[in-house]
Amino acid sequence: MSAVFAPRLELAPMGHADIDEIVAIENRVYPFPWTRGNFVDSIAGGYSVWGCRFADQLVGYFVLMMVVDEAHLLNISVAEERQRMGFGAHLLRHAMQVAARAGATSVLLEVRPSNAQALAFYGHFGFQQIGVRRGYYPAEKGSEDALVMRQVLAGGTGYE
User: Fold this and answer.
1) For residue 10, what are the β-bridge partners?
2) Of 16, 43, 148, 149, which one is least surrounded by beta carbons within 10 A?
3) Residue 88 vs residues 19, 140, 146: alpha-carbon distances, Å
4) What is the DSSP secondary structure assignment for residue 33, as one 8-state letter?
5) CA angle, corner 77, sides to 82 and 96, nearest 5?
């Protein structure tokens, strides 16, 4: 009798040894990516940096910063060839669980208004726009605003 093993999905904290893999995805996904230094500083600063591996390959990651009772999702990314396969949902759910376990009552994030796919994704998870940061993101011609979105974790959202 032979056994068939499905590839495993693993979510785990990431460290300095993982930065090359993270930066490789970051550079392929964004026209204005975070630098290697941004990730080094995030890890050194004690932010929650988690990766999602599928069949031992890094397919995505997130960076979460706690500020008192609020979590700020600074970065969440899925490798381009792995998008729209559910990995982003796993990462976002896990980020909200990590935030709730750390005592956060809400999660904040910024998103480009031009990123319709991300807006729909965050909306699906109950994030609502609460503000705008003018000129927040670099863009081809100057800058682009950021929509500030929040998901409240307390009160039965299922992410506690």
Assistant:
1) 53
2) 16
3) 19, 26, 20
4) P
5) 110
Q: Let me know if 2 is exposed, middle or buried by CB neighbors in 10 A (0-12, 13-18, 19+).
A: exposed
Q: Which residues are catalytic?
A: 110, 122
State phi, psi for 45 to the nearest 5 degrees: -80, 0
Answer yes or no: pTM beyond 0.85. yes
Domain 9-152: CATH architecture, name and number where available = 3-Layer(aba) Sandwich (3.40)
CB 159 within 8 A of CB 150: no
Query: CA 98 to CA 132: how far, in whole Å?
Result: 26
Burial class (CB in 10 A: 0-12, 13-18, 19+), 92: buried
pLDDT, tens only, 37-73:
999 999 999 999 999 999 889 999 999 999 999 999 9
DSSP annotation of 81 reads G
